[in-house]
Amino acid sequence: MKFHSKRTTAFAALVLSGAMALTGCGGDAEGGGDNGGSEDVSITMLPKNLGNPYFDTSTAGAKAAAEEIGATLEEVGPQEATADAQVQYINTAAQQGVSALIVSANDPTAICDALNQARDAGTKVVTFDSDTEPDCRDLFVNQATAEGIAKVQVDLIAEQIGDSGEIAILSASANATNQNAWIEMMKQDLEANHPDIELVDVVYGDDDDQTSFDKTAALLQSHPNLKGIVSPTTVGIAAAARYLSDSEFKGKVALTGLGTPNQMREYVKNGTVEAFALWNPEDLGYLATYAANALATGEIEGNPGDTFEAGKLGEYTVEDDNSVLLGEPFVFNAENIDDFDF
Amino acid sequence: MSDTSMRPAPEVHAETHLDAAEVERLIEPSRQSPGKRAVNTVLRSREFSILLVLLLVIAAATIKTPSFLFSNNGWRDLLLTPAILLLLAVGQAVVIITRNVDLSVGSVLALTAYLTGKLFIDLPGIPIIAVVAIGMLAGGFLGLLNGLLVSLGRVPSLVITLGTLYIFRGVMLSWAGSDRVNAGDMPPGFLDLGTMSILSIPVLFIVAVVVLGIVGYYLYAHRGGREMYAIGSDPDAAVLYGLRVRRRVLSAFILSGALAGLAGVVHAARYGTVSSGAGSGIELEAVAAVVIGGVAIFGGSGTVWGAALGAILLVTIDRALPILGIPDFWQRAVVGTLIIGAIVLDRVLAARQERKLIEARDEA
């Protein structure tokens, strides 16, 4: 029995030392945050989830901007793109008293309370990529207008399938703000300008490789006459391309949407995908960080008509709905894809 | 059955009288001819009823959309899609049979899938077989950690593996961060494995079935396998009887880890991309497959064949429901109903069998 309890003690000690090692790591990261930043502007970047190459790139742009400004920037985020997972990170940022929080919302309303608590504590809130309700943030940095994004995708798919036939949409999660807005506009555009194209289904891959992959398979099964798939999410289009690239549908079912060059390079080169669109997420993160800094230093209030300089991108003006527009979407194809690396 | 102590007092059942053949089947099965016994065993097995449900699902989807079964792609996906869950379910079944559970398999899968991608990036030209071996070894090592904590720490496996689920996922997050492995990072030969077929049977499915066959045979015929059932039925009795309980439980966890490792390699080959969220939530699917497959959650009974069929059924239902026109949002509810239905069926069948056995004893 004595031997027994010794072993239990040893086991407990092991667990405890493990836990201490883990907390030790956390302490280090925080300590680093206090040193930099000449103007004491500290920014927390909260993307929808980590492990998403799109947000990796926007964070890279944000870090470049933070370096130019001399602000400190820390990226935090949940593993899975859910609203409740984001709330705890927002609360932590508010408790740390950071000057500004840059967030891409997983839900337009679910994180509102947390954001407003942070704002009451003096943190400026900038949304980018996916907006919340206008009354829970100071400024929205818009990657492109919903109209522009919807139009470029409809144009691409119409061109690739000869402007007639069945198409389907593979989206992110069913409550993703930006995807839903684009889908709504695509429907209107299709109805008004492409009467021969029929949208037969909208499915949700939850921005997860495996789910998106399986949903693509299901789409092709349940709609044998499908001529094209539009996936307005980077994870979705890559998973769909992976499925198409070694199926009998390769080259027969067109695929387009929003993707990143690094993820799509293989599939553009092997002929699975002809062309897809996106803005430059690096510029988006860069602009969001400049906007956050302008708010934090009091240079702008976030009101319509306010103007600020965003480094290499030039001057931006806040528009009527308290947003700033990055620019027009960009189309990637076999000819230009090698010019990009993100 | 695991809970004979809870058996209700024998009731008098005047309404049913078992005929002689039925009594013989129940109390002296060895008197029947071997052929008859085999047929009885198969027809009355839990696995057979799952197979029936599976065939019904496939038939319904095929009637609605013939390409579900009869196109090259449909046939391939039917076998290929369950391969990953099948591997996990086999490992999970062995662990659950010993009255434990391994919730960390999803995180182990993520780690080994990412390791697979990293090996190809850092060591260009590494043979695929070496990557498979390293993946299984790494998974087996993580399983060993689980097993040691459970058998030496004497803490319930539910708690230990819930802890390692988070720890392993945390390690994955700090290792991979927001990095990911893309299709372009892995050699085409490896990615082709994800879809390659031999005689129109996908290679990954063959791998899963071979693993299933080996583990199934071991559990059915080998002394170690039978001891696992004994341990799951009554761990205390197993100790008193002198079985090496710790060693068997440890090997069950190592097996589960190694199979999760193999599933990680398969995941990388199949999906061509690995991010830090890979395989999250799949541990519960594995447990669900095992339970649906008729393995008692408190151990001691059930087979890996059933667990494998449960995995195939779960995945196939997921694929068939959209074709049958059932919306995304209801699909999870259907899976939940299936799990509860499986458990209720278990109880009903167990109670019925017990009642019949008592009757048969009284009549004989």
Describe the structure.
Chain A is 45% helix and 19% strand. Chain A has helices at residues 2-33, 53-69, 83-96, 112-120, 146-160, 177-193, 209-222, 234-245, 261-269, 281-296, and strands at residues 42-46, 72-75, 100-103, 124-128, 139-142, 165-171, 197-204, 226-231, 254-257, 275-278, 307-309, 315-317, 323-325, 330-333. In chain A, the strands form four sheets. Chain A has a six-stranded parallel sheet, with helices on both faces. Chain A has a four-stranded parallel sheet with strand order 7-6-8-9, with helices on both faces. Chain A has a two-stranded antiparallel sheet with strand order 10-14. In chain A, helix 2 packs across helix 10 and helix 5 (146-160) crosses helix 6. Residues 20-38 of chain A have low confidence and may be disordered. By secondary structure, chain B is mainly α. Chain B has one domain: ABC transporter involved in vitamin B12 uptake, BtuC, CATH 1.10.3470. Chain B has a two-stranded antiparallel sheet. In chain B, helix 6 packs parallel to helix 11 (203-221) and helix 8 (128-153) packs across helix 9 (157-176). The two termini of chain B are 22 Å apart. At the A-B interface, helix 1, helix 2, helix 7, helix 8 and helix 9 of A face helix 5, helix 8, helix 9 and helix 16 of B.
Name the features.
heterodimer, A: about 350 residues, alpha/beta, Rossmann fold, 2 domains, 6-stranded parallel sheet, 4-stranded parallel sheet, B: about 375 residues, mainly alpha, ABC transporter involved in vitamin B12 uptake, BtuC, two-stranded antiparallel ribbon, 17 helices, 2 strands, about 0% strand, globular
